[in-house]
Structure formats: structure tokens, C-alpha cells
Protein: Glycosyltransferase RgtA/B/C/D-like domain-containing protein
Organism: Bifidobacterium tissieri
Amino acid sequence: MNAKIGRHAKRITWTTKYVIFAFANLATLIAVMLYVDGTSPVHGDHLNLWDTSIFRLAGWVWADGGVPYVDYWDHKGPLIFFVNLIGAVVGGPDHGVFYIDVVLMGITMLFLWKTLAAIGDQLSVAVRTLIMWITVMRTAYLLVPNMNVTETVCMPFLAAALWLVLRDMRRMHEDQNASVAIITAYVQGLACAASLLTRATNALPVFVCVLVLVVMLCMRRQWMPLLGCAVACIGGFLTLVVPFSVYFALHGAFGEFVYGTLTFNLSYAVGTASDVKPGITVVARILAVPVAAIVVAVIHMLRNRSVDAERMMLLISGIALAVLFVRTEMFLHYAVVAAQLIPVILAMAAGWFRSRAIQLTPLIVIIAMLLGVTVYQERASHGNPYNNDAVQAAVEQSNGSLYLYNLPAEAYLRYDLKPLSPYANLQDWQGKYSSDLQSRILADYGSAKAEYVLVAKTNDMKQPIIQPVLDSKYQLIQTFENTPDGPLQLYQRR
């Protein structure tokens, strides 16, 4: 009887410790995101955060009864718009999405912890906790002050997919009769769909995992499990894709959905590699994790004089991500999808040392460095609330009958202006990657629905795409010099 009471008390003690541990990590996450995320309530309204502003505007338009790609267009999948729709409904377009991002990052941390439990069970709780937080801080460092991006939405799916893959790899390594679980295949399809519905290139780590699992099943001649996994993977993919496809089909916008999610991005992917020449520090920050994955995988193979599925998955992932990052524009947030490999890399490296002090010391140094550079990056890039007196004057003069051309998405949110064209911002920047998009922009603005057009000049095109429309249907009535968005020209319909 006393033994039973003792075991029961011990279970309660461990459960209490687990709950306290979980809440402590959640509280720390909230504190970190309150500081680094520009959409958090502790920061001012209407910070001009570019991608974040675009997604918030998309969510606001959707919440106001509009349809993505029809009433507001951007070359991303609708899942990121949907997250911002929920944010706009929950807490308004300025700060609502912050609460959703906290939930997404919390779920990501849960699966990072499960990954560490699966592959680093020999490591202490302190070591695993530090590794988890290094992953979170690395993500924050790459995104600050822009946590509301496609990668944040994908990370819970990618982290869950990787955890299940590693769990099955361990099980199959220990038991030659074991196979890939159906739920693992299903979640791979789910993660692939989440990537497609945000930014398709986010799916690369999933493709690598699926490739390794397929090879393992083929080598074991487990043909029926392979067929079952294929069906489950397709089912997971359709779970997310079908509802969005049906929604857009019912609103007569399926073609626009496909164009914005896939078709345009083919032109964008081809045209971006030579467009940006990043500095060496940017290259180092982006390639750090893929290179570390390659190095650690190779060292582990040489040390053990053997090759297994985990090491091959890590090696192929590192190579594939490095090639992807080099071949596309080197925006820091693109590298976030590699962060899920950090627990694998550091757990593998920490396992080389038996001394807990040797395991902990470099991890403490890494997280201290990440904390320092994140604070510095936040102070350097946080920005100020968007204000442009010329834009405000044009909005008031037009009574809302106004196109904004080449102006930031935040201008619509700041001055409560409803977009009158789906191509509402970044027109010339997006248009330079696709002649078809240029034709779409020119045709839409050719309808001259708005009485006024406020145009900012950029270096993306020799002249604005809509210049023929401005010449034939509008006349220049005012020029604004030295505004926060550069020189602006206000046109009025003839």
C-alpha cells in the first residue's frame, strides 16, 4: 500500500515539475516575442515592416469581406493570409496576428522538444533545453522584427514532420521488421501542403525526409507499407489543399489562387538569383546551419565508420538547403526553415562528449551570443511608425478613390484606405519578374476605377508599368519631394 502511494506521489511530483517547466518556457517565449516581434502590443501601431504589413493587409482585406488574389494579390500561398485573417478578427490588423504567432511558435517548441527527446534521450534536461532555446533564438535573430512571415506558419508542420521521421528512423534501426508509421507519412503530406500554401520552397526539408524514408522502405522491400504511406502522404497533402481550393473555386478565383501560389513563383524563382548581391555576413548567417549540418554529419560518419539514415538525412538536407539558399535571393527569413535541423546537429555533436560541463559550456556561449545579436538587430531594424503626410493628404483629397502605386502596404492600414486594385503594392518590383503580371497590372489599372493615382518611383523599372495609363487617362497635378517614400507624383483622372 505504501509503495503504491509512493509511486503515485512520485508521478504527481513529476507531473507538477513538467507543468512548471512547460509554463516557464511558454512565459519566456512570450517575453522574447513581445520584445522582438514588431506586431506585439508593446510596440507602436503601424510599424512599416514590409512583408508583415503585406500579410496583415491581406488578412484585413479578407476579414472585411474581400477574397485573396481577387481583391488583394501577393505571390504567397493563402495559408499565411488565413493566419492574418484570424489575427485581424481576434485582435485587429495591427497586433492581432501576434497572438497567433505566439501559439505557432509554442507548438513549434513542443515538437522541437519531442525531437530532442527522440534523438537526445542520453542528454540532460539542461542540455536539451539550451538546444531548444538556441533554435528559437536563432529563428528570432533571423526574423526580428518580422515574426509574421511564411516560415513562422510552416515551422510547426516542419518540426512535427521531422520529429516523426526521426522517431521512425530510430525504431527501424532497432527493429528490422519495423516500418514507417502511417501518421508519419500523413504529416509529411500535411507539411508539404503547408509549405505550398505559404512559400513552396519551404517544403525542401520535407522532400528530403520523404526521399530517405522511401529509400529505406525500398531497401527493406516493404512494398505494402510503401503503398500505404504514399496514400497517407497524399491524404495529408489534400487535407490542407482541398479546403482552400474549394473556397477559391466557389468564389470564382481558383485560377488566381493557382497563379499567385504557383505560376507566378516559377517566374520569380528563375529571376531572383542574380538580382541581389549580399554581403559576406549575410551569406554566413544564412548558410551557417546547412554548413554545420554537412560538417557534423560527415564527422559523425567518419567517427563511427558507418552510414545510417539519420546522418544521410542530415547530410542531404544540409546540401539541398545550401544550394537552395545560394540559388535564390538571400533574404534572412528564407533560412528559418533550416532551423529545425539545429536540434539534430547540436544533439549529435553534444553526444561526442561525456562531460556535462563540456556539453553545456559551448551551448551557453552560443545562446548568449544569439541573445546579444538579436537585441542589437532589434534596436537597429525595429523602425518607426509609418507616417507620410503626402499620402495622408492624397487619401483625404481623394475621399478613398485612390490608387497607391509602389507604396508600402502599411500605408493602406495606416490611413484606413481600401485597395481599389488587387495589385496594391510592390507593383514594379513584382512585375519585373513576370511579363504576364505586368500585363495584368496594366489591364487592371487601365480601367481607371480610381480618380487619383499616387505614384512612387523605384529603381525596379525604367518607368512605372502603368505609365501608358498615366499618360492616356490621368494628368499630373502635384509633386511631393522628400517624403519618407521618396518623391511622389499625384495624378488625377482626366
Observations:
- The mean pLDDT is 91.
- The first strand starts at residue 402 and ends at 405.
